[in-house]
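Exercise 7.
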Amino acid sequence: MRSVVIAWLRLLLVGILAGSLLGQVLVVLIAQANGKEAPEVEHLVVPYSIAGIAAILCFQIAVACIWALLTMVESGRIYTARALRWVEAIIWCGGTAAGIVVATAGHLLLFERLGGPGVPLGMMVAMVTGSAFVLLMVVMRGLLATAIADRAELAEVI
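Solution. The predicted structure, written as tokens, is:
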């Protein structure tokens, strides 16, 4: 991959990380505002803020893994078992983040008996997109594993 493309991708990743840091701050501020506006949900401000921050943290870790994979691509070391570990970490981050969102929405609906039609819709969207992302990454991991095996076999032939 050309170094210009990698440089642009890294620039975008830095922007994404900066935006996600802002998102973590906004989660807390919005939760506090909602707690003041609706006293019946004030007890949820801290746990839901923690859940929001944790879900975004999963995303941030996945971005860091992508950065590591870009570094491996740049140096020509992408076809290694180490790259598979970074992809595994991305899979776990995606599944965990989706799980946090689904669990939070489920808690809001089932235990708190709150939330309008947007909560079950958001829960379904999180389940579908989270599952799709994880399955896509599992396929990508399989493709990388096949490429690693093929490269090793080719190296033996040469």
